[in-house]
Every structure is written in structure tokens, then in C-alpha cells.
Amino acid sequence: MSNIVAIVGRPNVGKSTFFNRLIQRREAIVDSVSGVTRDRHYGKSDWNGKEFTVIDTGGYVIGSEDVFEAEIDKQVELAIDEADVIIFVVDVETGVTPMDEDVAKLLRKVNKPVFLAVNKVDSGKREDQAMEFYTLGLGEYYTIAGINGSGTGDLLDAVVEAF
Ligand code: GDP
Ligand code: MG
């Protein structure tokens, strides 16, 4: 397989919402398997005529705040191994959290394209708030609202360009 995009980030930032939007009207090609991959969902998508596989990570934490940093780290490390491109989703509502910093630390070492997506940005005020994510040391970010697709086109333009 090639052109694999992994969506990573801590719980409740909106990874699955964005994933579901990407694979809309498409079937997930692989669901729960075993062992380390049991919590990863795979789907097919395309943008600008380029097909790709997208991986949603961290399904085990839906609706739960009770998650260990080590679990997130494991998912991020798997994503780094498996993916060609990584989308790191963070949440403008909460701002930067220690878990975001932890994930950013792993991603800064990666020799693959990493796109920072600041999610839940649906107003000018939140555009301003998004600036605090520069402190993650990952450079430029894309502001998106996965729930309605706002901003996701620009992000996907850049993602498929990176294949
Ligand atoms: P995950 O744990 O990272 O997969 O996050 P989910 O996709 O399950 O979303 C967590 C919560 O954030 C849900 O209540 C979503 O409806 C909400 N959410 C996701 N995207 C957006 C968005 O763009 N704007 C707002 N306001 N809420 C969102
Ligand atoms: Mg999820």
C-alpha cells in the first residue's frame, strides 16, 4: 500500500469526526483486527484525483478522558512507522495541553511530512486563539472544523501534494 495518511492526536480533539468526513460514503476497508492494530480504523479516500488510505487512531478512548500518555505515544509511533504522511489534530477549544506537547515531541523527530491541524476553528476569534499552537514547534498549521469541513480543503491540498 502507498499513500497512507495517519490521523493522530489525544482524545476528543476530533480525529474520528474528520476521518468520517474523509471516508464519507465509503466503507472502512479494515476494521478491528488484533493486537496492536485493534484500535485503528482504515478507510479509503481521494482528493484532487489522488487516492489514499487514511488511518484513524485511538478508537479506544472515545468518550473517555481516562487514557494514558503511553497509549497515545504507542499509537503515534505506529502511525509514524506505517504512514507516509501524518496529520496531527489538536483542539482550539482546550488550547495546548501537556499531552499535545508530548505528541509534538515525538513528531518533531519524524522524517516524514507532518501536518498540524487545529480543529474546531469556526470563528475569527478562534483563528486568533489557534496561534498558541506555534508553541508546539511544528511550524505552520491549518485551521479546520472537521464537523463542517471548513478549512479541510486547504489541508488536503497540502497532504496529497506531499505523496
Ligand atoms: P476523537 O476522540 O479525537 O476521535 O474526537 P471525536 O471525533 O470523537 O470528537 C470529539 C468531540 O468533538 C465530539 O463531540 C465532536 O462532535 C466534537 N468535534 C469534532 N470536530 C469538531 C469541530 O470541528 N467543531 C466542534 N465544535 N466540535 C467538534
Ligand atoms: Mg476517535
Automatic annotation (TrEMBL):
| EngA-type G domain ranges (all copies) | 3-163
Give the residues the record marks as binding GTP 1: 9-16, 56-60, 119-122
Spell out where the chain crosses the membrane: none
The family line of this record is:
Belongs to the TRAFAC class TrmE-Era-EngA-EngB-Septin-like GTPase superfamily. EngA (Der) GTPase family.
Assembly and binders: Associates with the 50S ribosomal subunit.
Q: What does this protein do?
A: GTPase that plays an essential role in the late steps of ribosome biogenesis.
The name on file for this protein is: GTPase Der
Query: Which gene produces this protein?
Result: der
Q: Which residues of the full protein are shown?
A: 1 to 163 of 434
